[in-house]
Write a structure and sequence with these properties.
Length: about 160
């Protein structure tokens, strides 16, 4: 199989959209990602996957911390900004959760310390120990088959 076919196959799995953020030398950096999952309740651990050519990789290594920000369906612009899909003239203003920069109004903000790191293929998996979290109500932004999507309840659920 070729790389494009593999990417298309992986794109069939619908995911939430996240912005990973970190701070190095007083400068905050963000990157859109969808490779994120929970790992453990005790201790509270999550994992993110960062490509080995991504600038964010060394930034997380330098800072030793990062945030995961689960975007709402109203935050497609934020996703596009940090994916480099759309240019904005204004500088993005991050909020803070503890010592970590976070995206304002994200459905979930997780402030993490790097707990472990694993090199796997052309990506690095960062295991983060969740130190603080904040939750908001709303529906998540979804990505599937190369497109942004929203959750929609099936008709049979709506009619009940």
């Amino acid at each position: 199989m070729d790389d494009r076919q593999f990417r298309n196959a992986m794109g069939k799995f619908a995911t939430g959209v996240n912005v990973i953020a970190t701070e190095v030398g007083g400068e905050v950096y963000g990157m859109t990602a969808n490779a994120f999952m929970s790992v453990s309740l005790d201790p509270k651990l999550i994992v993110i996957s960062i490509g080995d050519k991504a600038k964010m990789l060394e930034r997380i290594r330098q800072s030793g911390r990062f945030s995961v920000n689960v975007l709402s369906c109203e935050q497609q612009d934020e996703s596009m900004r940090f994916a480099g899909q759309k240019q904005f003239e204004d500088k993005f203003e991050f909020d803070r959760l503890g010592e970590t920069p976070v995206v304002k109004d994200a459905l979930c903000q997780l402030s993490c310390e790097v707990y472990n790191e694993h090199v796997e293929g052309d990506h690095v998996l960062f295991v983060g120990k969740v130190e603080k979290l904040a939750l908001e109500d709303g529906d998540p932004l979804i990505f599937n088959c190369g497109k942004y999507r929203r959750l929609e309840a099936p008709e049979e659920v709506l009619s009940k």
